[in-house]
Amino acid sequence: MNYRVVVDSTFYLSEKEINEYGIKVASLNIIDGDKTFRELDLKNDFVYDNLAKGHKLTTSQPSPAEFLRLYQECFDEGADVVFVLTLAEPLSGTYQSASIAQKMLDDPDKVHLFKSRMAAYGNEMLTLELMKMIKSDKSREEIVAYIDQLNNSSYINFTIENLIHLMRSGRLSKTKAMIGTVLRVKPILQMIDGRLEAHGSARTHKKVLDMIIENMVETTKDAKKVIVRVVSKNSLENARALEEKVREVFKNIELTFSEYVGPVFSLHLGTNAYGVAWCTVK
Fold first, then answer.
1. If one looks up domain 3-27+62-140 in CATH, what number appears?
2. Assessment of whether the complete model's pTM goes beyond 0.85
3. What is the 3-state secondary structure (H, E, C) of 108-138?
4. Does position 99 have pLDDT exceeding 80, yes or no?
5. Segment 220-237, tens digit of pLDDT
6. What is the DSSP code string of 30-65?
7. Which element (helix H / strand E) includes 104?
8. How far apart (Å, rounded) are the C-alpha atoms in residues 25 and 9?
9. Tell me, what's the pLDDT at 180?
10. Where exactly are the structural domains of the chain?
């Protein structure tokens, strides 16, 4: 079987990975007033510069037509089945656009749309595992069962240096953002079933690491293997400390590391953040 993969632009995989695996990418958009820009055409400085000018930026999902075009490209290139991963449905209309495009096909069964509970580097983690399965010549049924199992055991924890961006994007009230910024509280955020929720807060990075590791330990009991992806957004020292702590506590892990978060998520996270995504193999 010839498999291909379609993701959205908040999967910040490297250009090498995109090209090596032949992954096709549907672009989310950033809206500035009456102008719309594709995320794939932007750098992070676009977000920071325009926010500094007082612009109110918003985001929108790819259109169903864009997903349909990418599916058709895959089939034209010989794909028998197209696997699709997108942002978690509660975060964006991206999943819905991908689903609408699937239903527009003459044979919708040739597209398998995973219902991810993850975002950004968590979805990157799932995609890298998906590519391993494809390269190992696994059947469609084996691939779907494995990725579903990883997805259902997946978690994200992260912290940000500045709460103002979350306030601007509507993810946090102005009062909480200002209090947190003044007190220099570091929120620990997590995803539960695709929804962003507060897990706690800490005054120091050491306490942040301790709380994240505690959550990882609690959610990985009896796992044969833990698959981990650590991300740094201009917080390399803290992210490397987190990586070191993870490697110290967990012996049965596969860990990858990323230092890039693109414009759509930079709009919400600001300039500095770090975190970890993980899932378990039973």
1. 3.40.50.10440
2. yes
3. HHHEEECCCCCCCHHHHHHHHHHHHHHHCCC
4. yes
5. 998 999 999 999 999 999
6. EEETTEEEEGGG--HHHHHHHHHTT--EEEEPPPHH
7. none
8. 6
9. 46
10. 3-27+62-140, 155-281
